[in-house]
Design brief:
- By secondary structure, this protein is mainly alpha-helical.
- Among the domains are: 69 residues, no CATH class; 78 residues, no CATH class.
- Helices cover 46% and strands 9% of the residues.
- It has a two-stranded antiparallel sheet with strand order 1-2. It has a two-stranded antiparallel ribbon with strand order 3-4.
- Helix 1 packs across helix 2 and helix 4 packs antiparallel against helix 5.
- The chain is elongated and about 60 Å long.
- 25% of the residues are buried.
Length: 216
């Protein structure tokens, strides 16, 4: 129900939910047999007013995440919604936070993301030991899609060979295809992108010099 925000194939739901296709097929068959879900051209979608079940699934997921999150970071804020979330742990040095898909045992289980002068951001997953550069770039844009955070991403993409295929795969997962495409075109064309959230090329060159980043 959570992943049926739009008509999707079995493969799409399996990829997004990290389940086997057989598992997804079995669950969807039960939904279809009982009426809430139907198929059109190989895509599953809700019938009639049953699309409200998606809203219910989202709200339930948010509630469960909030319950687990508050046990770790009572002053924190869940900034990005999804089955995996980026928390914002509050001000004044409150370093606790987590992605409450599973409850972190302590702050050591958290993966630091982009620090700012007011907040610290963390990600949590029992499946990962570190946040990959591609994920970090996408998470940075989810935190803030403004010029400052876009510049952070440009510095990262200039300093590390992220891999375009991996980056675009993550962008599709987080619905950031347009944003990532703009960053890649900016670097490829040396700033020839019409977007006021991106710096002038001369400014970016100065920024790379400040951070001792060599452009590819």
């Amino acid at each position: 129900m959570y992943y049926l925000d739009q008509p999707r194939t079995v493969s799409e739901i399996a990829d997004r939910s990290d389940n086997y296709r057989n598992t997804v097929n079995r669950v969807l068959k039960r939904f279809r047999d009982r009426g809430p879900v139907g198929t059109t051209d190989g895509h599953y979608e809700f019938n009639a007013d049953f699309d409200r079940l998606h809203e219910f699934a989202r709200e339930l997921a948010h509630y469960l995440h909030r319950q687990r999150f508050e046990a770790v970071a009572p002053k924190g804020t869940i900034l990005w919604g999804g089955l995996r979330r980026i928390p914002r742990p509050g001000r004044d040095g409150d370093r606790r936070g987590g992605v409450p898909r599973n409850r972190p045992r302590s702050i050591r289980d958290l993966r630091p993301l982009v620090p700012t002068h007011r907040y610290r951001y963390y990600s949590y997953s029992e499946e990962l030991d570190a946040v990959s550069p591609a994920k970090l770039c996408c998470h940075t844009l989810l935190i803030d899609d403004g010029s400052r955070h876009r510049s952070y991403c440009l510095l990262l993409l200039s300093h590390v060979d992220v891999g375009e295929a991996d980056l675009r795969e993550q962008a599709a997962k987080y619905v950031l295809e347009d944003e990532i495409d703009a960053l890649l075109r900016y670097l490829e064309t040396h700033g020839e992108v019409d977007d006021d959230r991106l710096p002038e090329w001369d400014e970016f060159q100065d920024l790379t010099a400040d951070y001792e980043v060599r452009l590819f």
